[in-house]
Every structure is written in C-alpha cells, then in structure tokens.
Records
---
Amino acid sequence: MSRKIYKLHPISAIINFLKGLKELIIPIGIILMSRFFNQSEGMDFWTDLLPLIIIGVPVLFYLISGIMKWLTFIYWFEDGELRVEYGLFIKKKRYIPFDRIQALNYKEGIFHQLLGLVLVTVETAGNTDGKPEVELTAVTKEAAMQVDEEMGISKRKARLIEEDVGLEAKNKINVEETGKLIHKMSNKDLLILASTSNSIGVVIAGIAAILAQFSEYIPYDWIYEEIRMFVQFGIIIVLFTIIICFLVAWLLSIAITFLSYYGFSVTEESGRIIVTRGLLEKKKLTIPLNRVQAIKIVENPLRQLLGLASVTVESAGGGAIGEKEKKMILFPLIKKQQLFPVLNELLPQFELDVTLTTPPKRARSFFFRMKLLWLIPVVGLCSYFYYPYGFLSILLIIPLILLGVWQFHTTGCAIKHNQLTIVYRIISKVTFLVEKKRLQVVVRKQSYFQNRRKLISIQGTVMSGITGATAKVSHLNEDDADLVLNWFEHEKKAKPIE
Amino acid sequence: MIDLRNVPIYQIPRKGLTVWRLYGVIGSVITLFVATGVFLSTQWQNWPNYIYYIVFGVVFLEAIATIWLIPNIRWNHWRYEVREHEIEIQSGLFVVKRTLIPMIRVQHVDTAQGPLLKKYNLSNISISTAATTHTIPMLISEDADLLRARISELARVAEDDV
C-alpha cells in the first residue's frame, strides 16, 4: 500500500482555536465584569493593562497551539490501520487497526456546512474518558468517505481470508458501495415521535424552570388582580390558556425533534450500520454490526398503546458517540410489526419471538412493597406540614400499587439458544436482547424477604460506554433464575471456542 | 438440569472479620469525635438536652452495627469460588448477591493492600471485565497472589472478542 499522507483542512486551525476560546469564556467574562465594576476607581496604566495581558496571553497561546496542531497533524492509511501523528515538541502517534474501530462518526457543524467539510471521530473500545480516540477536525467530504472506504477495504480483505465465508459474502462484495436502506423516517413519523416523546414533559419543566428564575421580576400583585378578573371570565378561558401552554410545549418539542432527527435514515453497508440525521448539524454515525453488544426496545406507555417502539443499540464504543447520548438510537420510532422483519434483516442473530418466563403469582406484592415503604415518609411529611389536605397524599398508594402490578405483568425473561431476553418496566416497557457471548457478568440477587418466598432477581451486564449497560429481571422463581445462571455457565461438552 | 445452585465453597479468612471490625472501630471513633463536638456546643450554646441523648444514642447504635452486626453478617455471606471456566462471588448484607463471571470476560486482575491490611497480611483482589469490576476482599496475601496468578492464567487460555 502506498503511503500517502493527508492533512486536515486549514479551517481546522481556526476551529481548534475557537474550541480553546470556549474554555476561556468564563474567565474572560469574570475579568471583563470586574473591570466594568471597578471603572470608578483611579487606575494607572499598568493595572489598566493587566487584565488585557491576562486575557491576551492565553488567547495567543490557543491561537498558536491551534495553528501548530493543524500544521503538525497528519494521517494516513497503512497495513490496515489508521495512523495519526501530531504535536510539535511532543510527537504523538496513534495507530488504530481498522478492525478495532467501534464507531466512525461524521458531524457537520455550521462552519463545516459552509465549506463542505466534515468532522470525523473514530472510537475504539479502549476509551475511558468518553472522548474519541481520533478526531479529524475538518476534512473534505471526499477525504471522509475515503476513511470509510479504507476501513471497508481492510474489513473485506479480512473477511476473504476467513474460509467459512460462502458465496453470499462474495456476492455482497460485488454489490457493495451502494448500501441498503433499512429504515427511513418520514416527516409524519417525526411528528408522531415528537408528540409521543417524553420531551414534551421536559419542555414544560424547562418553561417552568425559566419562569421560576424570573419569578422575582413578575409583578405578582398585578397578576393576582388579573387572575381575579380572569376567573370571572369563566373556566373556559382557563382551559383555553392551559391548552395554549400545551400547544406551545408541543410545538417546541416538534421543533427540537426536527432539529435532531430530520432526515433520519438507517442504512446497512458492508457489515456496518450507518445512521444519518440532523437538520442544522448533520450527524452520521457508523457502527460495525459485529460490535453491537445488545439491543434495547423501549415502549413508553403512550407508544405501547399505539403499537410503537424505539430501539437503541448498546455498542462497545464508549460514551462519545454524541456527548449526551450514551447509546446509539437505531430507530427513534418504529411500528412493532415493522420491527420484526427489519431487525431480522439487520441483526439476524437476535430473535424477538420468545416465550417469556414470568415471575410467579406470589411475587406480585414484591413489586410494590418497596415503593409503599418509600411512601411512608412522604405521606408523613406532607401530613405534618399541610395538615388536613396533606394527608390526601396517602391516595398515592393506588397509582403505586397499580404501577407495581403493571410491572409484575410486564416482567419476564427468556433463554433461547444463545440469547437472553429480559423484559422489565420502570414506566416504559424495556425489552433487552443480548447474546451469551456479549454478556460480561450475570448477578443473582436475593434479599432476606425474597429468600423466604424463594424468589430471585437476575441482572445481566454488557459492555457499553464506561460503566456498561445493565438489565434486571426481578422476583423470578428460584428454579427459573438458576436456569439463567446455569445457562451462562460454561457448558462442559461444548466446543472449546465458541 | 433444574437444580438449585450450590453456594460457592470458599470463605473469607477469619482475620478478615477482625479487620472489618477494626474499620468499624475507626469509623465509630470518628463519629465519637463529631458527637463530642456536638456535645460541647450544646453545653456552650444552651441547646436543649435531648440532642445530647440522640447524638450519643446514634454513636452507640453505629458502634454496635459497624463493629459487631454488619461485619458478622457480611462475613457469613461472603463466599467465592474460582473454577476453570468461571468465577463465582457471593456477597451482601440484606440482599445476597451472587455474581458469575466467565473467565473469557476477565480483562485484568489486581491485588491491593492498605496499611491495615498489610499489618494483617491480607489483600483485596479485584477482577475487571470490560464493563464492571468485582472485588474479593480480605484474602491472605499469598492466597490472593496465587489466585490472581491462576485467574490470569485461566483467562489467557480463552479467546476474547469484544
């Protein structure tokens, strides 16, 4: 392979610089503020200049280091590895074999979009601080595609060497490049997504928080006066206002959803899942199919009612896929009937069709016991502080018991061949699918009371991000639970290497 | 196939219980200091007397719990077993937790020893997988070293794919 060396686009010097500046915003702000307030005091030339120096030196430092990083940063492809080198005094070299790459992500900020560039981040399983291993700050789209292709080439070579790959895979090589569209979201889907998401609640809470912040500026006396008038207008107007509030929250939620999920599409291309999304900031995430650790199907109550679900993928690639999301959203919203064929096509190793082992009848009370225990101090405090009405908080028992019973009816687990399926509910119903070879640890938990009723909770952990992802199925029969542990234990007669 | 699982065989050495109790003593002494502080300020500030009783009641209860009760229960529950293909650890106070770690998932094994443990010639051994870390505490140092060597040897045999 020829060793051709690539450089980043010059704009990355500026981006580096701005990124450094971002960290300085707070100190600069403080210095400017203090200057602003100290105006009145008499100052000589030097004290006048000092803050400027304090600001100026780091700014200059970041400018130079930004440029230096760009000047020294080179990357190339060799021996099936992505190799990166940078640094002026301390040369840093990082070589990443392509088959160790967990995820390849593209992101286009506003800067990038103007110049037709992309930010490429590369992640392996080794990152512990949540930062990607390699970040190509700004490269042209062609160069970004090239990283992708080089990875594909080396993957394909590796695959050809394996003997048990049949004709099918070779055919795939001929067809490749185009990629197969697995799932695409229409605008209507996005609308439903926004309307059924929990983020409406978040938006309402956000508005409330902002209002609370400004509460001291709100002329309450005036408002009370207004409200008196208001009530006279009758209940209809009150209702109307509430509806308006919800409408605003709903519209905001739609706007947020459209910003981050616009044009959402999932494609499969030579053994990788590629997810593209975003309106202003376009994001493209790539995860090799064989790095998928587990999948999680989440149905919140509203969506469960409508037969919809969202699907996330737990991948070994650490928390850096997006700074906020720890796991990758595969399908933000999909009809459950559609899910079966689509998932079967994309990740055939997972089976959705399993019969669940459910907790026994005697476990039912276990699902709300603890919650009721928590309720005691809450009711106690409410009754104490708001005496007559506070005692009504005891009515919370009813929804809590109902929730517990609902959780009891949802919970279950199943073992089919090499797959463990765990279904549980906090409020949303979660179905967790994992292969035996991806499970890191299985834990069996039994409290004193569970021991008396012969019940056991089982918990499985897979690698995902820094802490891993855990699913728990509660209060199973002892026998059923131990079956899971026995299944997870090494089978003596099995082949030495799975 | 449906048989109840046996409890892992090995227990933490008796010395470990002593160290846990010592930890309890240290903790109790610290709270005793805090309590004395509160006591002095009650005297000084003329706070009501019952605070005095509450505070020392708390210290007394804490001492009983952390020196006698909790270490005993813990020590009774702690069990471990290192087999050819997996490690099984049982721990817990009110909730008995049994963890099953396949050898092929073990990434690395550490032993650690603080000053108090060193005095008693004990070590903690911690086993890391790609996602989690599990500790077997209070093992006799030689045993811990042997165990660590054995785990890493067994873990090396199996191939890993994350």
Note: Chain B touches chain A at residues 1-5, 84-86, 92, 94-103, 105, 129-132, 134, 158-159, 161-162 (CB under 8 Å).
---
Amino acid sequence: MKKLFLELAGIAIALCCIVSCSEPLLFSDTGSPDLPQLQDASAQLLWIGPEYKVAVQAQLKDEDGISKVQLKNGEWQLDTTFAVNNQTTYVVKDTFLVTKDVNPTKHTIEFTITNNKGGVVKGNVEVEDLSAENQVPGYNPDLLPPSITMIKPTVTKFLGFTSAPVNVDVEANITDAEIASIEVKVWGETADGQSVDLSEMITPQNTTEKTAYHVVKTFALPAGKVGQYQYIVRSVDASGNKKTVGGNITVGYVDRLYLSDAETDAEVTNQGYDNGGNARGIGTLLSMKKQGANSFVVDYYYRNEASDNIRFVAFIGNDKPFTTNQAAPTYTLNGPNILGQSATTQGTVTTDLSSANFKLPVSQKGYYHVLVDMTARTITATPFTPSRPFMDPVKYPGWSESTPWPYLAVISNIVVGSNGGWSETATSPKLMKEAGHSYLYTGTFKTTGSAVNISFTAPKDVIGSGGWFRLTAARANMKDDYGDFIDIVGAVGPSGTSPNYGFSHNMAGTFKATYDLALQRLRLIRTGN
Amino acid sequence: MKINYMKLMKLTVAFIAILVTCASCSKFLDRELETNYKQEDVFVNYDRMQQAGFGVYAYLFNRFGYQRIDNAMLASACDEADHADPGSSIQKYNTGTWTAASNPEDCWAYFYQGIRSANLFLENSKNYKQIIYRDTIDPANKSTYETNVKDIAWLRAEARFLRALYYFELIKRYGGVPIVDKSTYTDEELKQFKRKTFDECAKFISNECDTVYPQLKDTWVGYASERWRGRVTQGAALALKARVLLYAASPLNNPSNDVTKWEAAAKAAHDVIATGRYALHSSYSGLFRLGNGADGNSEVIFAIQGWSRNDFEKTNYPIGYPQGGQGSTSPSQNLVDAYEMKATGMQIGEPGSGYNPANPYSGRDPRLGMSILTNNTTFKGRPVECWVGGLDGLGKLYATTTGYYIRKFVDESLDLTKNSTSVHTWILFRYAEILLDYAEAMNEAYGPEATHGYTMTAKAAVDRVRQRADVLMPILSPGLSKEEMREHIRNERRVELAFEEHRFFDVRRWKIAEQTENKPIMAMKITKEPNGSFTYLVQKAEDRVFNPKMYVYPIPETEVLKSEGNLTQNEGW
C-alpha cells in the first residue's frame, strides 16, 4: 500500500512538473525586455606625439543598472573591463595605447555590456583611422634611422695564403638629419682562437659632418691565419634611431678546391678539354667536393712515383680555374692560391711552396679518399677499394679481374688511324693497360681537325658480338662539384641506349690520354702537333 | 622510392593491420580456416620478417603533412593559415572547443600502435641470423644470406629509430608519456604504466638515437638498384636527436632555463652539420617538389616517401581553377607580414624598410612568392584573382578567406581536369631546419656570434639559410643582442619552415602561444579599381582562442579512464 502511494505521489509530482514547465515563456506584449543600450559610440585611431592611441567614446544606458562593460580588440590585444556599479547611465571615454598599423587596416572595438539582471548586449564599433597626421601641431619627429651606404669592403673573402696581414678597407657614407655617433668595428677570431676586436667611435663635429659623414678606415687582420670576422658600421642619430650595416669577412675559407696532378706547367696549359656545349674538363685538375665548412674530399688514384706532383688549387668567390676552357687557365702551379703537402710535417698542407713536397701522405700506390681540411690545414689519405663499375657485364662486356682488357681502342671520325669509324680497326690508336696499375690505360692519339668526337672501346676480339664498351657522351655529365667541368666519363651500355661518344674536341694535335676504369677519370694532355 | 618499395609498403601495412586484428580479436577469429599469417608464421624467414620491419614505417603515414586533419593542414590550427571550410574539425583548435574526448589531431593511440609494431618486430627478430640461415642453408646462397642479415640488422636499427620518432611525436604533443618497451603485457603490467617526465622521455629518445646511429646505413642512394630509397639513415638519427634536445631546452620544457640543455642541443645540431653530408638545395621552390628522389637531395635528411596523387592540389588550387579549391588552406596576413623586405632585410613595419602598403608584395623576401600565392601572381597561365569579385576572390564558399592561397608543396603542372597526378613526399628533417635549430641553441647557450669551438656561429647559421641561391636575403647585421637574435631566429623559422608543421609546435615550446594564437587571423581585402589597380585593406578574418592548458594536448579521455588513475591528465583538461 505504501509502495502504491509512493508511486502515485511520484506520478502526481511529475505531472505537476510537466504542467508547470509547459507554459510558454512569453515576452511581455507591451515591449521588449530591458537590455543595455549602446549609444553614440565612436572609436578613433590617433597619432599623438610618438604614440598611437585609440580613443573610445560611448554612452551606455540601462534602466536596471549596468554592472560592467568590456572592450575588446584582438589584433591590438586590447581586453579591458569597466565595473559600472549598477549605474543606469555610463559614459565610456578612454584611450588605449596601440601599435602602429603597417597596412591600412579595418579595426573594430567590441563592446560587451552586462546589466544588473544579467542581460548582455554586444556591439561593434568601427575604428576611424585619423592617424595620418599627428595630433600635436608641428610635431615632426625624426623616425628614420641614419642612412648608411656601404662602399667597402667590396672584397670580404681572402685566401690569406701569404705572410702579410690581411687589410680590410671599410668605407661608407652616412646621412641623417643629425648624426650623433658612428661606430666602425671589425671583430672575430682566428681558427686557433686568437681574438680580434678592432673598432673606432666617431662623433661628427660640425653641421656638415652631422648631416653627411664619409667614413674610411683600414683594419689589419692577423697574417697567415684562417679566421672568421665581422664588420659593422653603426650610426645613431640625435633622436636615438639606430642603424647597423655590416657583413662577414673570412680569411682562408675556400669556396673551391681542386687537386692538380699536372707534372709540369705545360700540362696545365695543354690540358685537353671537351669543347661541346661550352663545357670544360678532362685534364689534370680534379674538383674536390666541399664537405662541411672548409674541408674538401676527392677520390684519387695515387701512383706513388717520383714524378708525382700533387698540388691543391684554391679559389674564393666566383673565381674559377678557367675563364672559358682549359686553353685559358687562371692558375699556375706556383701561384698564390696553391698548397702542397709540407715536406717537413707530413699530413699537413702548406702555402709556403718552397717547403712543400707535393706528395700524398702515403707510401703505397692505390686508391685513396683524399681529405684536405683547409681550416686545420691538414691532409689525410685513406685507402679504399674502388667500387669497380667495370664489373657490370652490360657496360663492360668481357672484362674480368683475371683477364682484363689488354687495351682500349681510340675510335673517332677524325682521329688518325681510326679510319673514321666507330669500331676498332687494325690501325686504331690504343690506350694500353699499364703494368702495375690495375685499372689504368694509357696511350697517345692524334686528331686532325675540329669537332672531333672521340670515344674508347673495348678490344674487338674480347667483346665480339657480346656487346661493346664505349664512353658515355660527356656532354650530359659535363659538371663537376661546382657545376663547371667534368671529372668523370662513364661507360654506356649496348648501342642505342644513349649517346655513345665520350667527348668532343676541336684542337688538332697529339694527345696523351690515361683512362682510369675505376674512377672513370680521363686525364688528357696535348703533347704536340 | 621505387614502385616495388611502395607496393611492399602497402602490402606491409595491410599485413600488419591483419596481424593486429588477429591478435586483438583472437577469440572472434578462432576458427580452423587460416587465411592470414599468424604472429608465429611471420618471423620464420627473411621476406616475412622484412615486411614486418617495413610495417613499422606504416605509421609515418597519416600523421605528418598535407591536408591530413579533416582535409585541413595543421598550419590552419595556428597563426599560419585559416582553413576555408568552416565545417572542418580543424576549426576546433581555433574556437578553443577541442577536448580530451574530441581532439582533431589526436595521435595517442596511433603512435602507440607504431611503437607496439616496432616492439613486436624487435622482439621477434632477435634471432634473425638464425632464422635467415635456416632459410638460406644452401651454401650457394651465402651472399644472399650475408645481404639479408645486413638488411634485417639495418631494419632493426630503423625500427628503433622509428620508435624513438613516434615517442618524440607523442611528447611534443602530450608532454611526458609512458615508455612501453614490450609488445605484449598483462593487465597488471598495463596498469603499472605511468607517465615519465618530458626529460626522461627526451633522454630515452636521445639515447636511442645514439645507440642506433652506428647501426644505420649512411645512405640508401646507389644501393641495391635504388630499391630501398627512403629508408632511415644515420643523418636522420642525428637530426632527431638535435630536434628532441632543442624541444627539451625550450621554455615549455625548461622553465628554469638550464643552459646546459641549450648546450646539448647546440652540440647535437652541430653533429649533423659536422658530417659534411648535407647542404642547402639551390632552389627553395623546387625543394618541396622533389618526389621520391628527395632523399638523394643534399638538403633532405629524411622524407616520408609518397605516392602519386592530386588531392592536395584539388584542395588547394585557387577556387577559380578547374576542380580546384575544395576547401583551401588560406595563408594568414599574420604570416605574410613576417616576410621581410629583400633589399634592406628589414621587417616591413620598420622605418626605412622600403615597404609600400599600396604595393604590398613587391620587393619582399622571395620565399613569400614561393610559399604563398598572392593577388595577381601568374599561376597556371593566368593571374590569380584574389580581389573581391575576382575568380578566386573572397566571398565564395571554400574560396580563400584571407586573400591568399598556399603555393608551397603545390604542383602547378597538374591538369586536374584530366586527373593528372604527381608524387608528393613530405620532408621530415631537412638541413635548413638543422641550421635554425643550431642557431637557436647556440644563441641561447653562447650568444649570437660565438663559435665555442664549433664551425659556425648562430648568426652564420641563420645567414646561411638566408643566403640560399634563389633566396639571397641580406645577412643579419652583426652586433645583435641575444634577444634581438632570438627574434630574428624565430621569424626566420616562421618564414623558412612555413606550413611544414613547425610553427604550431614552435609557438608552444617557446611559450608564446598565448600571444600569437590569441590574435585574430587577419585577411587582405583587395579591391580592383576601375583603372585596373588594386587597393588593399587588412581586416579580421576570424578570432582565435588559446588557453594556457593548450600548450600540451589532453591525453584522450578513454585512455585516462582505462588506466584507472595511473595516467594523469594534463593540467586544465
């Protein structure tokens, strides 16, 4: 019985709740509920003296009393709330510091007004931009920093291979309504930790100097040392505006390094080169790949013979070893940009050529990863076994470790003896396999005129009908580590797969060529007419 | 990556999915007919073991890059961009309505699946030499045995790297997480898992990078007929270590500003630089369109191999182009304003910068035009019309909401009407980021222009990025204070790494998100005048909401509940 009573009571309560909640919520038909009102609102962006401000005005009304008003703007990160203390009218009149606009910008201020009964009204007020002119009459501030036009240094990279100090000229023109001070400074440190800090502070003395100043200074950096430095010209004007212009200076940081194995000056000036497509290469210079800030590497076959003459040729900036091609080299074997291994301290390189022995720091012939650290001025040679691309039977048919090709035949349309064909003939010149040097083939040939396309092929008897070996057209690969001239000339596979002559040549003469099957390096020198 | 590798990867993904399904639903699938490999059938020979190893890579997909979050880029969840589709769940980040139960980019379970996949592979391939030997017992297969053994050894190191990477992806979002080093565990063990601190996790990741470094291959380029291009290399391990230590040193995770953390981060970044293996690519614009040859590029340290697709272009070509504009990424004016003036190297708002608000895109950092399509830029043979009323202008559904479209990553050459596609890779680590990591850490540890025995200063590292061949921005002025250099580095990261999923996390680890992410996204309203000229007015595109709790993600509510109190929720969530 009790249970039934409780159930009936529960149903009754629930019904009451439903009935009491089902009555529609109606607004009064005599008018809308009282809500806060925003009247005569305005916002203006003003430039007042050195500052930018937004000035906000508005009248707020609410018969129930206003509890608070919040002003917000996202881009200025303006978010402020006024406690109004239940007044029925309230005047907002305030200014806020804001940042100057970079672009013409549409801003709005969002008002959120809350009344005593929790009623909330939001309104947006667009900001009128009056910041084009300063509100302070005659206010004409110097907002611009001094103008600095650098004239020197025009050269900021130095080899520093000589024993003379490196002189850095700093020259600049500075202009402003009123220059207060000028600082010229060069500082940094050598690779071995010697600190350099050279500076001069200048205070312009007269009206002419205060509006336009010409700075000329020379600073001497340590001689014969690798180092990284910076220079600045800094000027502050009478209004406190500051401008700094400067840059980096390096001494001994090299942009390009090449390994030269030219035995004589003549082998520099008579390097063979590919003439097609303005490309250059195939001589006595091997580009070294830059590794890190100032180290260079190359794979090299070292003969370890008395005639070895290994030099390193350094370049900075846009300097290159050739102006157009190897016919016009920009370097000599004893030039100011040459290094060689020290004769007295093996494993180091020196710029003092009189004390260099021009060898690698090893005593065995073979293939080496050669690493030259131009900061530490060290050289290492690490032996390696070449990857032997000639093990590929498609590109190098018939070659094997036990029965290597005895020679490579020179084939061309106008090489003497080749009879104009693209196959070996009985009179084809030959590069013979060198005794004691597993993968080197050396010989001579003579060209008779211009636009010579030349390749090498495996011996006819070896390749038979089983394919053929020729050099791939160098043209497509005619880039070295610096995008200039080639180091390698690889092999192509069966006929028809790609251009199949190695390189083009247009200088008549007799040439000595050595082709390295492992590194695919062609060393070509014109030895005579 | 070669097609073979992609196929293998896809097969592996399916394979692992099936494996996981079998493992998790073993009762339901407890029947006689066997159609799939069971776990015990996987680690029985080289091929299956290798596929299981590749399966760990599968978790690189879908959580990095492009429009992966309900058709939006992560960039649209920070001040880099706005996503034009108002219905996309990415908008939850911007309205501040994401929760522990509803996080559009929740990665918790996904990366733990990846970690489990790595653990499973590592546990079961321990005896890989024995397994492979059994499989290649014929003496004639000796060289195959040797090759396969090497491959699994590499794969094991790669799996450990990927596991470390997945942990990093977790901690940069959630803070410290439990370190799970097994693939299976009892309910009791499961309940014991507690969150490690951020530093403990960072140390684990860093140690893993150190351990696997010598076991990884230096490059896959030129190996095995290029079949395995795209796999993890030693450089990736160094780069991950550099990144995790940078995060550990950053204000969010280093509130006491322990300088030794910055020193460690600087050293780790320099270790990448000192390899000498990497250099900046000459073409900034070309860098992001390298396809699967990306890992052969000197700048790319590790990239997620991609496939041929055009969904990114369909999403991000301007609305007026055929089949383009299906919910585009709209770069913000906030970001556009960050690009300096090329001639002066100054911010556009600085007096004397040379900026002309009436011609706002002229003379800017070239990376602006390479990353963002601005009004009147020629794209696919016609000028982009971002002006109000233009073919691509504001006001149309899914058109730009900011007056800009994204250009970075976009393949302009695709003909969407013919459904043409191209391979899209996503670069995870690149050398420019390492240089900026290094610059930031060096500046904080030693100041802007100190070498501390390393090969370059903070300033030199930033200068190198600015001096890329097709960018050639002026180098920074010497003599900057640490604070000034910090601002330069932060802006350089913002510009150089725009849209690459760095900014979203950078503003968090720098603890500046309360400033940057509470600012509205601003747009450029462009009006074409009757004489053909344009006028420009900046206006608000949308407000953004960021609360302090959002510096880290909430741990998914279900995970917290399941843990029965062992997994503590992040503060405020």
Note: The two ends of chain B are 42 Å apart (CA to CA).
---
Amino acid sequence: MKEKKIILVSCGPFEKEFLRKIGHAVDLEFRIPVEIEDGHIDLEPFYSPGRRQYEGNKLLQKVSTCTKSDFTKIVGLFRVDLFIPILTYIFGQAMLRGDAAVVSVYRLKNELYGMRKNDALLLDRTIKEVVHELGHTFGLIHCHVPNCVMRSSTYVEDIDQKTTHLCLRCRKAFEEVGE
Amino acid sequence: MAEKISILIVDDEESVRDSLFNWFVEDGYDVECAENAKKALLLLESRQFDIVLADIKMPGMDGMEMHRRIRALNKETIVIIMTAFASVDTAVQALKDGAYDYVTKPFDPDDLSHLIRNATTHIALKAENEALRRKVTTLEDIDDLIGNSDAIRKVLKQVESVAQSNTSVIITGESGTGKELVARAIHSNSPRKYFPLISVHCGALTESLLESELFGHEKGAFTGATFNRKGRFEMADGGTIFLDEIATISPKMQIELLRVLETKSFVRVGGNKEISSDFRVICATNRDLRNMVKNGTFREDLFYRLNVVNITIPPLRERVDDIPLLVNHFIKKYCTSMSRDMITIEPAAVKHLEKFEFPGNVRELENMIERAIVIGNGREIKLKDLPMGKEAISSSVESLDELEMRHIEQILNKYHWNVSRSAKALNIDRVTLYNKIKKYDLKQED
C-alpha cells in the first residue's frame, strides 16, 4: 500500500525555516508526513494583465503536476496575489476531495493593510490557510464552529479568529474519510 | 437546517461557473450549474432550487427574461443577478421586477458570502414564520376543544395517548362535532407539532383535482397546470396530513392512497420522479366505514391501514353538560373577535339550549351564539335572541301536519283566539280554520 505523504511545494522565495514550521504544523494536524519541495513554476502564463493578479484555478492544475514524487496531497505556496474569475481575490484554493491546493501569503501580510510587519502572525495565518485548503482536499467543507480551522475566512481578521486545528466534528469527518 | 440550501448557477462562462461551484460546494451547499437560460429553466422544471445566481448577459435568453420565467415557475425562488459594471441599470430593473439582489462581477469574497448568508437567513425566517403562524393557529384551535363531560374527557384521553405515537387515526362523528379540532389536538400534542398540519377536504374535490391536490403536479401535466406545484403529501413532510370526509374518495384514489401509505413515496401528476415524504395520516368521516367495507364501497385493506386507532366524538345531545361551558366559550370568542364588551346569557336561554337537539352539533350552537351576540342588546343574550322560533321548530318538527298545527296555534294565540283575524292572517276562510282547530284538537289556554 502506498505510503501517505503531503508535499508542500515552495513556489516562490520562502525561508526554509518558514516552510519547515508549516510542514511541521500540517504533519501534526493530519498525522501525515510532509515533504518540502522547490517548485519551478513559470508564473507568466498565469498572469492576468487586466487584473494584475495570478489565476488560482489554473495554478491549482499546474501544482498537481509539478512533482515526480508520489503523494497523497500537494499544496503550492505562492507569494503572488491570486484570484479566480468571479472573485476579486482569494487566500487559497483547493480541489474538494481532490489532491491539490494552492495558498498565497500575499494577502496574509500585515504590511498590505498598512500595519507593522509581523512574521509570527504571517506564519500563523499561512499555517491556518494551508491546513484549511488541505482540509478541503480531504473532503471537509466550511464549518460553523468559530475557532475551527475549516471556518470560512473572507477577511484576514477572520483568519486570526480561528485556531490551526480542526474542531471535533471536522476531525471525525476527516478520520472517516480514512485518508 | 434540515435540508441543504440548493443553489443554481447560470452563467455562460465556464470559469465563472466552476469558481462559484467550488466556492459554494466548500460552503456545504447543494449546487448545480447551467450554461444558459434554457438549460437552467429545464433544470428548474425538474427540481426546486432555493437560490438562482444568474448572469444578466448570456447568449440567447438573457438573465432578465430568465428571471421573469423563473418567477412564473416558482415565486419562492430567490434570484440574484450577476452583472458587470456596465449593466447596473438593467440590474436595478431586475430588482424592480422582484430579484432578491444583484452583485457586480468580480465580487469581493465577503460580499458573496454575505449575500448568500442573507438569502439563506431570508429562507429560514420565511419557513420559521410559516411554521409559527401555523402553530399559533393550531393553539387557537386547541382552545376550542371545550368540555367537561365524561364523553369528551374520554376523547381527550384518547387524543393524549395517541398523539405521541405515529399511528394512523380515524375520527368519526356527526357533522359539526369537531373532528378537525380533534385532529389538530392530536397533531399539536405530537412530536410533529413543529411541522405542518395539512388539511384536505376530500369531499369538496373531484377525483382528478384531489389527485393533483394530494400528489402535486408538474408543469403541463394537464390544461391549466402552468406551474410545478407541490402536493399536500409533500407539504406535510415531517408533519401530519388530515384527510376530511375520507369516505367520499373514489375507488381509484383509494388504491393510490393505499400505495402512498405503504411506501410513503409518490410521483407528482405528470412527473416521473419519486418523491418521499414523512407524514402521519389522520382521517375523518361521518359515515360508517365498516359498513362501507361490507358493501364493497370502501377497500378493506385501506380501512385497516387507516383504522389503527378510532376516536368517536359524541354528538352534542349526548354531552348536554358541556353546553353551558361551550356557550361561555363562544360568547368570549365572539365578543373578543367583534371587539365588544363581554356579555352574559340569561339562565332561561341556557336551559332552552340544553333541551335543544342540535342536529348540527357544536357548529350549530356556535352559529346560534354568534347570531345572538350580533342581534342582541349587547349586554345579555335573551331567549328571544336565540333562533328557537322558526329554525328551532323546523329542526325538530317531523311532519307537515305537525308544522301546520303549531303554526295555527301560534297565530291563534297571537290574535287571542279571534278566529276572524286569525283566518285573515292565515289567508284561509273561517270555516277552514274551524275545521283545522277541530282536526288538531286545539284549545285556548286559560
């Protein structure tokens, strides 16, 4: 039986320690080993000049094919601003019950909102978004429990309200999937 | 929420459909997509959606026209129009036509979440409002189940014990005894009380109308079926269906009803989709169903399926003790509804009512009290305010001869036994009147 593995693909210049901490948090939450890889994705084809953003759905397709390793789930981490055609921006995107997800730190940074840079907060937000999007790949839908990581967040402040963990119900649903 | 909110996304751009589909699926909604208005309308004819999110500009039929057609199909569906900045005017027009809201593309994720959250809250509030309204009505009706006699106490005890179960009940009793009130009492005391009680008066509908009423119909199923319509069984999901005058249904409907009771599923008239509904059945009749089974006019299998518990409501003449209580209850009810001061009733009038036969049972008594309040002096109901004159006689007199005798006697008393004046009033000659007095052996009272 194939061993379970989550691949975290770095699609931009990220510090190794930053990636390691995300990988560690994901491992703890899903109890699935995480491997970190460098993704060499040319972002130009995904750029929309009209919106000056990068198309999340297309990047999602790309991420799922950007490694030769076997994996259970793959998540691409970006620094650029992502969008989907109908929405002005997204923090991340995933295939529900699929195998791939993408997350961008672009709108998770305090600086974007005129506030002081806060690396610890950025790491915390990124972990939450990565766990959230991976949760969707395991079939979890948005949760109404206020501190559950699967709660929908449309503002960055919403992300700060929740924890990095699944609530009991989402945990049960995740375990029932048998991933 | 018992059922997932369903959303239909209509947009000619695949990327928009996919993005919205993923967004709503992740939120736990039941989502379907259509690439144009025609396909959307076909989908809407086959099933119901709570929310339709439609692009305003599409090739072929545009969003505005589609919105109008959706309104014609089902007015309850919430339509949200998606538009580019250039077509805000058209979106405003859509709002005037009854669209719930509009959003300009691309949306801010938070705007979209808010919009759908508001729409779902609207749906939930509407459902809650309907449920509460039904509950209030039910509670009012329960208050009408008045009585202290042994006979009505027995009925109330039966209601109490049967309410908690899910068994079918047949309520029998003469017309006007309050069969529907008992059905409401069973429903209101059952675990199904927060779901609807749907009443169907089977006797008032023809076979085809009853079929469409009970099972619903699809658009175009017959002439005049211009909308999809939910049937009463579907509406009663989670609650109770009350079939009044069950003895009047045709043999064909008896078979159909038996099938629905056995499978708890049915197909709308003109449809092909099996619909399931969880309902409890309570029936009422003023006829002897057991006799009808013997005569072959009512199916035996259906009778046994329905007659798990039988509650018989006694006629008012067998619960005379309840008359004063009922009278006071109706006085209170009608004085309140007519915004009048509370009035009383003279003891002689109550005594008279207790002697009356009441072929129309409690309903007849209620009508008498209502009438007396309207025509009375506004302080006390007097004997003369009660329709014990002509109406009372007409309901207790058996033969024409008896009626004639009473009328002649009344006229003679009115004119103090002056035969000439009485004959003139009766429009007969004096000889005929003498003959009638002799025939009926009428005598002047001292």
Note: Strands of chain A lie at 6-11, 34-38, 47-48, 53-55, 73-78, 82-84, 87-90, 92-94, 100-104.
